[in-house]
Structure prediction request, 688 residues.
Amino acid sequence: MKLKDLSLLLGLSQTTVSRALNDYPEVNEATRKRVKAAALAHNYRPNPRAKSLATGRSMAIGHVIPISTKHEIVNPVFADFIAGAGEVYSRNSHDMLLSMVPDVEEELTYRDLAAKASVDGVIVHGPKPNDSRISLLQSLGLPFVVHGRASDGDTGYSWVDVNNRRSFERAANFLMDLGHRRIALINGLEFMDFAQRRKDGFLDAFSQRGLSPDPALMVAGEMTEEFGYRSAHRMLAGTNPPTAFTVSSMIMAIGVRRAIGDAGKKMGRDVSVVIHDDALSYLPNGADIPIFTATKSSVHLAGQLCAQALLDIIQSGDTTPQHTLLESELTVGESTGPAPKGAS
Amino acid sequence: MKLKDLSLLLGLSQTTVSRALNDYPEVNEATRKRVKAAALAHNYRPNPRAKSLATGRSMAIGHVIPISTKHEIVNPVFADFIAGAGEVYSRNSHDMLLSMVPDVEEELTYRDLAAKASVDGVIVHGPKPNDSRISLLQSLGLPFVVHGRASDGDTGYSWVDVNNRRSFERAANFLMDLGHRRIALINGLEFMDFAQRRKDGFLDAFSQRGLSPDPALMVAGEMTEEFGYRSAHRMLAGTNPPTAFTVSSMIMAIGVRRAIGDAGKKMGRDVSVVIHDDALSYLPNGADIPIFTATKSSVHLAGQLCAQALLDIIQSGDTTPQHTLLESELTVGESTGPAPKGAS
DNA sequence: GTGAAAGCGCTAACAT
DNA sequence: ATGTTAGCGCTTTCAC
Prediction:
């Protein structure tokens, strides 16, 4: 069933039918009703490609995922984000175009998307400081929204971000309120913007009390179970082990938990773990080790907001940068957690 | 830069340029060279929508993900699969269209994709026995490949599946070779095809030795950390606890590990855990609890094979059902694992 | 308020 | 081996 068939069927021109369907004001209300009813009855769906060719808009949003560094896609956080964004696209009858490309081809892919007008806009994932993709997209004139920020104070583009700095500041403060002083930070690679911000927040919490963390308890690396395990293991085996951990991802937290298990007899119940990134869904507060989920990640929400922001930009044509900073909740498990031995 | 511009520039007709670019045989080699060079130099990219409108092919593959039951997308396995498929699409210059829809709208979505000719084919995720989507897609005439199988012996459609039955048969056999007899099965919901097959394999391993598992040690439920924890916890608290676990997913395995941790002092080093679904990447063999990854999941490979199979079907037009059964590797951790107390 | 006709950028008969 | 022409299914002037 195409437009022509429908118009013939109704004894109207394609033009009128098209106008009726697309809610043009000049159409007679009676006609519109008749047309819409017929379209529904005959299950008419406009061909998006034809429409797109005529209008110049693709009604699709691109997500480009580099695949050689596997972190992005394997990360459950990514899936949640995509799910959130996808819902918004569905509701607004947009398509989501996912491109998995070797990261060396990422720039080419953006150029391609722009040249072929395959998408009306893109979401940028995993920004690094001074990310080259931003200027590329600007020069290509392709609307975009960044999930995260490419560097501090940069206001030249739209982004949606979780308040990473504050999350870790609050996590550290929470632990210090419980009496912990030897708090470890198991962070992601610090050239990633989010990791840098988390570290800043962590340090801030200490400064606020005139304290400073033990540098030996601060590490950054690949967000893998293995790195979490090894880091925590080394720290716990030291002469002055930490009494609490702040961890940058669920996967690393699993490793930290394993290390704590190894050291279990030594530690007793004296170790707290604070995790970022939706850990609550996967690692509920255990009976053996008190785990506090400090920041309930809002990745799913972030996905929705990113998508909505981009659609708004595309619709309005207004590219004035919009910035959304999400506060993540401090969610505490059932147990309020122990104070370290000899704490005040 | 569009075809017309390029043809004007070259002093050729659009037709010739189009033919040269699309490797039609009747074009003069010299001309083709000239055309291709010019296209490259001027960075010409054919508009896929125009092309699609003219050819009737969309050069896109659809993946429909129901979102009200969150399992599908949250599952890291899903992300790996998508990554695998995405690579294949990229290499074959196809787009991947991801639709996140409330599961009640799933059928509507397929009808939509078919009616609007948005995609040349779809991949079906998470099949259940006698899945209604299969007959729907067949009646819509939309090419598809199923990741998994909708029921036993069904050969009327193409699928790519991991040999779930054998994976669990081998896992159980592996543990029995180590001397274990009280082996638990923590399975996914048994109305899912894969879970049923895993159970079958588990049971087979016992029958082969003239044994049968304790029904109290076989459970099935949502693949969550919580379910894994609770199931294992209950079993370990019983009078005759298991000495080994086979677990159907990484997430559940985390819960099982937590339960083992709880029961640690009682158990000593006597518990083995065998996990399906790429557990190796996330849960390396621990120092405290011996964990054996029995089946290295091939989801990523499955994604590639599904995508390739679908592209082949679309290209050749040959819809003769193709079936691919992947054998998953039995990967054993560093430790070969302890025999249970008093084992032979 | 409705219609005729041109055109979006490409491919595919049908010439030559 | 190359060009001419007519679409693909829709929107959008422009005219009535």
In short: The two ends of chain A are 76 Å apart (CA to CA). Residues 2-4, 14-15, 18-19, 22, 46-55 of chain A lie near DNA strand D (CB under 10 Å from a C1'). Chain A touches chain B through 57 residues (CB under 8 Å). The longest helix of chain A spans residues 299-316.
